[in-house]
Amino acid sequence: MSFVFDTYALIEIIEGKPAYKKYVDLPVFINNLTYYEFYYLILRDRENQVTKILNLFNFNFLEIKKEHIHDAAKFRLKNKEKKLSFPDCLGYIMAEENKMKFLTGDKEFENFDNVEFVK
């Protein structure tokens, strides 16, 4: 099984959370928006470790198409009471399209189909 990782999962991995140990050596499928969010957070919180942290992952970038953006916006609007982030909605939609699971620990995604929820 392949996974589209969200930023939450990536942060849990670099923090060494045991629940995410089995995902450490897997290929990391993400889109550019998730990468941006992740890069920003490590730059903000661990500036002197940016290169080391980025080298921990085997990133595989999924191309964002306009249809993904449209579907993610519709999904976010449909679930607006959950206050889902746009990067997460986009990752979720891209996981579905690519027949992968969306890997997250974000409680708002816990009961959605096609989610590997890890806390």
3D architecture notes:
This protein has about 120 residues and is of the alpha/beta class. It has one domain (about 5-115): Rossmann fold (3-Layer(aba) Sandwich). Helices cover about 45% and strands about 15% of the residues. It has five helices and five strands. It has helices at about 5-15, 30-45, 50-55, 65-80, 85-95; strands at about 5, 30, 60, 100-105, 115. Strands 1-4-5 form a three-stranded parallel β-sheet. A two-stranded parallel sheet has the order 2-3. It starts with a strand and ends with a strand.
Annotation keywords:
single chain, 119 residues, alpha/beta, three-stranded parallel β-sheet, two-stranded parallel ribbon, 5 helices, 5 strands, 44% helix, 13% strand
Helix-and-strand structural type: alpha/beta
Query: Roughly what percent helix?
Result: 40-55%
Radius of gyration from the CA trace?
A: 14 Å
Distance, first to last CA: 19 Å
Q: Given the structure, what is the number of helices?
A: 5
CATH topology: Rossmann fold
